[in-house]
Amino acid sequence: MRKLYYYWLCPFSRKIRILLAEKKLPFEIIIIKPWEENTSFLPLNPEGIPPVLTDDDGKNIANAYPISEYLDEVYFEPSFFGNTSAQRAEVRRLVAWFDEKFNDEVTHNLVYEKVLKRKMGQGGPDSTAIRIGNANIHDHLEYISWLCDRRKWLSGDEFSLADISAAAHLSCIDYLGDVPWDKHAIAKLWYARVKSRPSFRDILGDIVPGITPSPHYTDLDF
Question: Which of 102, 115, 150, 214 is most buried, by the most CB atoms less than 10 A from its CB?
């Protein structure tokens, strides 16, 4: 059985979990808490952070980007990168947008500051960083809305890794109740479509010890 080393509020872990489910590949989850020393995990990823995928043949792949590429190359059908070079380029562009730009401007300022910072022994939350994250999220939701006005899904006509990546980040923030859905109706409709996919059900079932999810977190008609 393949194994996914995973943390509940890590959007990169969530992305791989959703991708595995979309590809209908069975796997076992092993929870990794980045703030806890785990000598058995370090050989799998010297950074000490999830996600890491151990495939059926014992091969270990660390980091969400190479895991995504690996899964697409080894288990091609269905592909979530697109079928043409132009489609794949656009999917990769948007994946980078959410995993780099959105992560730096929003996820880090909200999830890290509110949850991970104290657990990792790095002090209390920075209120300025939280305000910046809350301000920045509006621009990204507007961009999602702009894309959805012009396309069926974020990268084009097909559901792709771009949608998975964006939704993985937003799901972590939505767990904390920090997504202003009421101000971004088009982005909310897109997220509701992603949230309704069977691959998302297990994500919505995650409960982070000591942190209660927002009241609408599991509601498909939020």
Answer: 102
Written as one string, the DSSP assignment of 52-69 is EEE-TTS-EEESHHHHHH
Residue-range definition of the domain harbouring residue 99? 85-197
Cβ atoms of 156 and 75 closer than 8 Å:
no
* Domain count of the fold of the chain: 1
Instruction: With respect to residue 52, please indicate whether it lies within any of the assigned structural domains.
Output: no
What pLDDT score was predicted for residue 86? 97
* Residue 121, pLDDT score: 78
> For residues 144 and 38, what is the distance between their CA atoms, to the nearest angstrom?
38
| pLDDT value of position 119 | 82
Asked, for residue 120, whether it belongs to a domain, the answer is yes
For residue 160, being part of any structural domain is answered with yes
Q: What is the mean pLDDT of the chain?
A: 96
- Averaged over 148-164, what is the pLDDT? 98
In a domain, 144, yes or no: yes
